[in-house]
Amino acid sequence: MSYRKIIFLSFILSILFFSGYAQIPSCSAAAKFYGKDSINVTTFGASTVAGVGGFSFQTDLLNNIESCYTGEIVSVTTNGIAGETTTQGLARFPGAIAGRTGFVLILMGSNDALGLAAKKFKISDTEKNMRYYIETSLKHNLIPIIGTIQFFNDKNNQTYKTANLYVNQINALYKRLVDEYHVYLADINRALGRDFTLYQDYVHPNAAGYKLISYVWFDAINRAIDDKLLVIGLNQNYPNPSIDRTTIGFSLSQAGRVQINLYNMTGRLIKNIYDSYQNAGYRTISVSLNNLDPGIYIYSMQVGGQLLSKKMIVTR
């Protein structure tokens, strides 16, 4: 092999490595406004939660959270038993969440689908069990996130083809329950799709599949934090300096009236940027700067008796 080919292959391998296994996640813009001093995650389910073949998603998930929520104490527990149906997991769920706060990630149902395919299970049982998991989580002030279950690799296997019909039914049920209870969904099935190169066997993810699952959970946790667990905060506009338009992000811990005004450096009001009632959460607004002279300005947000301010620079 020529020297040029060796260099080229090394370059390609480095790209694959850094785009996959060494990649850090994109952080929520609201991460700096997280309103608690710790993030606690309880993972509960069957074999995909327990980990298979030396692979799991929990370590990657922990790293994802720590990379964005710097300075927070983060814990991720693993409560998975291979082969369990949603019925078999009921007895140990109270112990798994005892004394826990924060989030509970629930990923069960693949074994239900196999039982349904074998006519040994009823989807009404799956629904009753998942209602128990969600309601018990909410009763203990936990934030439940329900994971959709992945497809079986059904190539040349009629049993798995039949089971996948029930996978679709179970996932549709989970989405309906998430909407009914106003909780959160981690759509693992959609992320993995039918890309069986992400599998190590007929249903369990390999290292790349588990890493992808960790990102799906992480995105769902970020959505929940953005909705429920933020303090009042005002982000630095971006880009900054700006030419003709900029974006300002802000967060609320509860519903209220938000007023954002723009001032020059002498304190004179230039214009009102935003005035509206909003619910808790994080949002961004786009601001036109076309009519402003180049210079340094102050934008201030008033909400709930608090006043927060940042500087912005306008250039031409």
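[next item in queue]
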Amino acid sequence: MGGDVDLDLDRLTPWLAATVGDGPVAVTRYPGGQSNPTYRVDAARGSYVLRRKPFGVLLPSAHAIEREYRLIAALHPTGYPVPRPIALCEDAGVIGAPFYLMERVAGRTIWNGAMPDLSPDERRAHYWAMVDALAALHAIDPVTVGLGDYGKPGNYFERQVARWTRQYRASQTDDLPDVERLIEWLPRTVPAQERVAIVHGDYRIDNLIFAEDSARVAAVLDWELSTLGDALADFTYLLMNWMTPPDGRSGIAGLSGGDSGIPAMEEVVTRYCAATGRDGVPGLDWYFAYNLFRLTGIVQGIKQRVRDGNASSAQAARMAERVPELAAAAWRFAQQAGA
């Protein structure tokens, strides 16, 4: 048994035997900041992945692994690249929290959007696979796959602006004029929503597993923010990578085009629109302002936790300092959009 494992194997073993007729040989917790702890379970006949809610008291809507399981169970039969769902256990008595089991998809995780180890042709193929997988998700009719009630009706961006305004207010520590301007401007200028799609909510390169030997997307992971909404939320969130300085993560500003192999943002818009039957994506500046406002709300929450002593890591403290610059960047895009 490897790593820091906090699962009760004495309780998990009989559940596995009864559910899949297999028993664990080794359990390893995956590193990383997932809010739902995730484990690799190597058993006699294969490998699985187990995701559970955190132990202890949780907010009612947080860490909704039941929703995640429902989503992958709906998408898997369509051929969309998600892991095969195996079983959902809502009985917290088994390991201390509800959890689900899914197949482990073998492949590669790419953490750095610059893809320094790949050739230009390989980079291009991986970016096109990433764009095409997002377009394929947005082409799925939620009603047809039994997800017609997976999100609230109405304008998605309207709800999201209101939600992140509430989140920001609940954790506010400073008076930032840029944020106040955004809170006033964004709700007044929300674009009309043309269609309803399944929205991933955090679609970026390190939430994908690529095939071992090709650029094919073998699995899209981490659906905890998924809902029904405006497909342009996902797509413009992905496009933010082209506006984000290279950081060893997904940011690739200044690295695309030319002989880099990484498609220019305009090419990405053209390909996505062709795949989804759109004429174009007008007014990208509004969406970039919104995406940065959302990030401001998320990071403000981290800042409050740092101040309260609930987020002690140096990385959290560094991130918390970014609130004013994120808000300023969001307002710059808002101004470009006519604010």
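[queue empty]
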